[in-house]
């Protein structure tokens, strides 16, 4: 599980809601979470702000793989 998926699940937000809130498709969120795509830097900042965290937390994966 990557950080975006972890943060989204922790807040009990669906991919669809996150996508609507960030003005992207649900498919984009799914691709970020699966590692198929990486959000552009500007969108990564929006994601960090959305979860009230920093960009480095959004892209950090190590800890999240062991929590869930």
Automatic annotation (TrEMBL):
Key words of the record: DNA-binding
- Domain of life per record: Bacteria
SMART domains hit by this protein = HTH_XRE
Report the PROSITE patterns cross-referenced here. HTH_CROC1
Q: Does the keyword Cell membrane apply?
A: no
InterPro entries (alphabetical): Cro/C1-type_HTH, Lambda_DNA-bd_dom_sf
Extract the SUPFAM superfamilies matched here.
Answer: lambda repressor-like DNA-binding domains (SSF47413)
A Pfam family found in this protein is: HTH_3
Outline the extent of the HTH cro/C1-type domain: 4-58
User: PANTHER family from the entry?
Assistant: DNA-BIDING PHAGE PROTEIN, TRACRIPTIONAL REGULATORY PROTEIN-RELATED-RELATED
Question: Under what name is this protein listed?
Answer: Helix-turn-helix domain-containing protein
Organism equals Acetobacterium wieringae
